[in-house]
Design a protein that fits this description.
Blueprint (H helix, E strand, L loop, with lengths): L5 H19 L3 H15 L4 E7 L7 E7 L10 H4 L8 H15 L5 E9 L2 E10 L8 H40 L3 E6 L4 E4 L1 H7 L3 H4 L4 H4 L10 H4 L2 H4 L7 E7 L5 E12 L5 E10 L1 H35 L8 H34 L5 E4 L1 H15 L4 E6 L7 E4 H17 L5 E9 L3 E7 L23 H5 L6 H11 L4 E6 L3 E9 L2 H9 L8
Parallel strand pairs: 11-13
Antiparallel strand pairs: 1-2, 1-4, 3-4, 5-6, 5-9, 7-8, 8-9, 10-12, 13-14, 14-16, 15-16
The chain binds adenosine-5'-diphosphate.
The site of adenosine-5'-diphosphate has 20 residues, from helix 14 and helix 16.
Length: 535
C-alpha cells in the first residue's frame, strides 16, 4: 500500500472534515473559518483570510473569515482586495502587502492567493500570509491551497443556493399570505400543508387546526343537496389530466354561514405522473352566484309576469273578434275594459323593469322640487279609491300646515302608488288604509298602513330585495314581480331617505319612509315646534 507523507494524510483528513462541515451545516462563516484555519496550518502560514464578492454584482471583495487577523484590522486589507488578482504583477501585490504590514505593524512578508472558483464563476479569493521573509510559497503549497479553495468555493455556492431558496420560499410565502384569495397547499394524500389568512377568514378554521387535516373535511364543498362533492366528485381525481380543474359549490364556514365558492386546483405531478399534491385557489363567489340566480329569476319572472297580461289580452281580443258571435255592447265594453287594464298593467311592469335596469346601470336621476306631500297623497288615493270596492276605506292623516318636501314628484308618486297598491293587494279582506305623515327637524316621515295579512319579522328586510316575494298563499294568488319594494327603496334612498316596515302577522303592516323637507321650511320649522302632522 502506498504510504502517504504525513502532511498529505493530514490534508486528506482536513479536507474530509471540511466536506463534512459543508454537508452538515449551512452556516457559511463557520465553514469558511474552518477552511482558512486549516489552510493556514497546512501551509505553515501565520495568518490568512477569505474574501467573497458581494452578491449584488458590484465586483467588490469583502472579508468573511480570517485566521490570525482580528476583524478590526480587516479594513486595512482593502487596498489588497481591490487589486485584480490575475491582472496585476506579483511585485505590485507584494508592494501593497508591505504597505499594509507597515500600517498595521503585522509581519506579512510572503503571500499566496487563489481565486475561489465554482463552475467557472469566481466567488472570492483565499489569501495565506507568512511572516518569514526567506520561506516563499512553493508550487506544492499552491496545489494544496487549491484543494482548500475548491472546498471553500463549494461551501459558498451551497450556502448561497440555500439562501436563495430560502429567500424564494419566504417570498412565495408572503405572496400566498397576502393573496386576497384563499390559498391552501395539499400533499399527495389530500392533507392540508399550508393555509393562508384569507382561507382562515373564508372557512373560519384557524390554520393551526386546518393544517394536517384532509381538505374534504376543512373545506367540505357541498352541492345544493348537501352532498360533500370533495368526496364524491373531486375534480383532481375526476379530471387527472386537466391543467387547472375547477369546482364550484357551497361551504358552511365555522360561523354557520353558507358561502358559494369556486376552488381552482394546480396539481403537481412527479416525472411519471404520480400525484404529489396541489395548490388550491379558493374564491368566495357568493355575490356573483346570487347575481346569476337573480338573472335566472329575472328571466322566469319576466316571462311569467309579462306573459299573463299578454295572454289575457290575446284571449279577449280573439274572442271579441270572432265572426260567428255577436256581442252585446255591454260584453264588448267589458272585454275592452279588461284589455285596457291588462295593457296598463303590462305597461307598468315594463316601466318597473326599465326603472330597475336604469337604476342598476347608473342610479336614478332625480328632478328635485318643493311640493306638498298631502296633496300628492290625496291625488294618488283618489285614483285608487275609484278602482277599489267598498271593502276598502282610505284615510288621509296630515296636519294642515304640513311643510313641503324637497323631492322628485313623479318618483314619489310611484313610491306611494307601490305602497298603496301593495296595501290593497295584501289585504284580501279589505280594511282601512291609512296614509299620513309628520314633520321632524329636517325630514318628513310618511307612512302607508293597512290591516292586511302582515309580514313575519324575519321577512322585514328581505322584502326590499330585488325579485323577493314572500312564499305564502297570496304569493300564488296575487301577481307581482317582487320589484315594487326594491324600486321603492331605491327611490327613497336616492333622496337620502330611509324606508322600513313595522308589521304583525294577521294584523297589518305599516310602511314608513323619510324624505328631506324643503330647505326654507327647515329654518322656519325650527322656530315653530308645533309643525307636526297627526298620526
Ligand atoms: P310584489 O308585490 O310584486 O310581489 P313587492 O316588492 O312590492 O313585490 O313586495 C315584495 C313582497 O313583500 C310581496 O310579495 C309581499 O309578500 C310582501 N309585501 C309587500 N307589501 C306588503 C303588505 N302591505 N302586506 C303584506 N305583505 C306585503
Amino acid at each position: 500500500m502506498l504510504e502517504l507523507p504525513d502532511h498529505r494524510l493530514r490534508q486528506r483528513e482536513y479536507l474530509l472534515q471540511i466536506s463534512r462541515a459543508i454537508t452538515a451545516q449551512l452556516d457559511l462563516t463557520g465553514v469558511l473559518n474552518l477552511v482558512i484555519d486549516v489552510a493556514v496550518e497546512m501551509l505553515a502560514g501565520t495568518s490568512g483570510l477569505i474574501a467573497l464578492y458581494d452578491e449584488d454584482g458590484s465586483g467588490e471583495l469583502r472579508v468573511y473569515a480570517s485566521t490570525g487577523l482580528p476583524p478590526e484590522i480587516w479594513p486595512a486589507f482593502t487596498p489588497l482586495l481591490d487589486l485584480p488578482l490575475r491582472q496585476v504583477p506579483r511585485e505590485m501585490l507584494i508592494h501593497v502587502l508591505r504597505t499594509i504590514a507597515t500600517d498595521t505593524g503585522l509581519a506579512l512578508r510572503q503571500m499566496i492567493a487563489l481565486p475561489l472558483t465554482f463552475h467557472d464563476t469566481s466567488v472570492g479569493v483565499i489569501y495565506v500570509f507568512r511572516a518569514a521573509l526567506n520561506v516563499a510559497f512553493s508550487a506544492d503549497d499552491e496545489q494544496m491551497l487549491q484543494a482548500f479553495a475548491t472546498q471553500a468555493a463549494i461551501a459558498v455556492s451551497n450556502a448561497r443556493l440555500y439562501q436563495g431558496v430560502l429567500r424564494e420560499k419566504q417570498r412565495l410565502h408572503a405572496i400566498i399570505e397576502q393573496s386576497a384569495d384563499g390559498v391552501m397547499i395539499l400533499d399527495s394524500r389530500w392533507r392540508i400543508t399550508s393555509f393562508n389568512q384569507a382561507m382562515e377568514q373564508l372557512t373560519g378554521w384557524p390554520r393551526s387546526e386546518a393544517i394536517g387535516r384532509p381538505c374534504a373535511e376543512v373545506l367540505g364543498i357541498h352541492n345544493a343537496q348537501g352532498v360533500n362533492i370533495c368526496l364524491t366528485d373531486c375534480p383532481l381525481q375526476r379530471h387527472p389530466h386537466e391543467h387547472n380543474p375547477v369546482v364550484e359549490g357551497w361551504i358552511t364556514n365555522r360561523d354557520g354561514r353558507e358561502l358559494y365558492i369556486q376552488s381552482r386546483y394546480a396539481p403537481q405531478r412527479g416525472p411519471r405522473g404520480a400525484f404529489l399534491g396541489a395548490i388550491a385557489n379558493v374564491r368566495d363567489i357568493t355575490e356573483q352566484n346570487h347575481e346569476k340566480e337573480l338573472q335566472n329569476t329575472f328571466i322566469s319572472v319576466i316571462s311569467h309576469e309579462l306573459k299573463t297580461p299578454v295572454s289575457i289580452i290575446k284571449g279577449y281580443a280573439g274572442t271579441l273578434r270572432r265572426k260567428d258571435a255577436h256581442w252585446s255592447a255591454e260584453t264588448l265594453d267589458d272585454g275592452l275594459r279588461v284589455i285596457e287594464e291588462e295593457a296598463d298593467r303590462l305597461a307598468d311592469q315594463i316601466q318597473d323593469l326599465l326603472d330597475v335596469s336604469r337604476f342598476l346601470a347608473g342610479g336614478l336621476h332625480l328632478e328635485l322640487t318643493d311640493w306638498s306631500l298631502p296633496m300628492l297623497a290625496r291625488e294618488v288615493v283618489q285614483g285608487f279609491a275609484a278602482q277599489c270596492d267598498e271593502r276598502f276605506e282610505f284615510e288621509l292623516r296630515f296636519a294642515d300646515d304640513f311643510p313641503p318636501v324637497h323631492a322628485d314628484y313623479e318618483r314619489i308618486r310611484m313610491v306611494l302608488s307601490n305602497l298603496i297598491s301593495n296595501a290593497i293587494k295584501y289585504s284580501p279582506d279589505g280594511g282601512a288604509i291609512r296614509i299620513g305623515g309628520r314633520a321632524e327637524e329636517h325630514t318628513a316621515i310618511m307612512y302607508v298602513a293597512d290591516q292586511g295579512i302582515g309580514i313575519p319579522p324575519e321577512e322585514h328586510q328581505r322584502i326590499f330585495q330585488r325579485f323577493y316575494r314572500i312564499d305564502n298563499r297570496l304569493r300564488r294568488e296575487t301577481q307581482g314581480t317582487g320589484l315594487g319594494l326594491y324600486l321603492t327603496k331605491s327611490i327613497v334612498e336616492a333622496h337620502g331617505g330611509r324606508i322600513w316596515v313595522e308589521s304583525q302577522v294577521g294584523r297589518g303592516s305599516r310602511f314608513l319612509f323619510t324624505l328631506p323637507l324643503a330647505h326654507r321650511q327647515i329654518t322656519a320649522s325650527m322656530h315653530n315646534p308645533d309643525t307636526h302632522g297627526a298620526e
